[in-house]
Write a structure and sequence with these properties.
205 residues; alpha/beta
Length: 205
């Protein structure tokens, strides 16, 4: 069996790095540029491969100052050129990376996000029944409720989408109150549902 260690959210990357120094594994999986930086360090120290998953371009996120954006741009350029493998979730994901970063990682692979089809088999009809009827069209957003996700654009677009469509927003975050205000302003309260943080999301596991 292959043992692996996963590095993720920047808020605990340093702690993950320290803990990862104390255990043995065969491969490192890192998500985002900061965790990939620590993953690269671990890869050199432990002499094991590191698989990096960018999940977008950090230096273009508007919440960062220009100085931080410049530092992230340098870090992204150096880190993603040195990964054992850089994984993109789709051809468009890879194309977007190349357009924004100006280079393509030499060792990349496209691996779509896995979905457990058997667990999804009866989910669609149950959701439609719970949120408006079996004939409804369902749009789902799942993620943090923060500005960089662009959720206000999705909410305002709902005014121009057929009334037979409902939007489920799965997740939580600091922008929740602001988003709920937009829903009221756009008069779409009957078609938008905030489901909060959920642990029953179907994944590929």
């Amino acid at each position: 069996m292959v043992k692996y260690v996963t590095l993720g959210n920047p808020t605990y990357n340093l702690m993950s790095f320290v803990r990862s120094m104390q255990i043995n594994y065969d491969i490192i999986i890192s998500n985002g540029v900061v965790s990939s930086f620590f993953g690269l360090l671990l890869s050199r120290i432990k002499r094991v491969p590191v698989i990096m998953i960018p999940h977008g371009i950090s230096h273009l996120q508007p919440q960062y100052s220009k100085m931080i954006q410049k530092c992230l741009r340098l870090l992204e350029t150096q880190v993603y050129k040195r990964g054992t493998r850089v994984v993109f979730l789709s051809p468009d994901d890879k194309k977007s990376f190349v357009t924004k970063m100006g280079f393509s990682p030499a060792n990349y692979q496209i691996i779509p996000t896995a979905v457990h089809l058997e667990r999804l088999a009866n989910t669609s009809s149950n959701i439609k029944t719970e949120y408006g009827g079996i004939n409804k069209k369902i749009i789902v957003f799942a993620g943090r409720l923060v500005g960089v996700k662009g959720i206000p654009f999705l909410l305002r677009a709902m005014r121009y989408i057929n009334d037979n469509t409902v939007l489920l927003i799965v997740g939580d975050g600091p922008d929740k109150d602001k988003l709920q205000t937009i829903v009221v302003e756009q008069k779409i309260s009957s078609r938008v549902f905030f489901l909060g943080y959920r642990r029953d999301i179907v994944t590929g596991k």
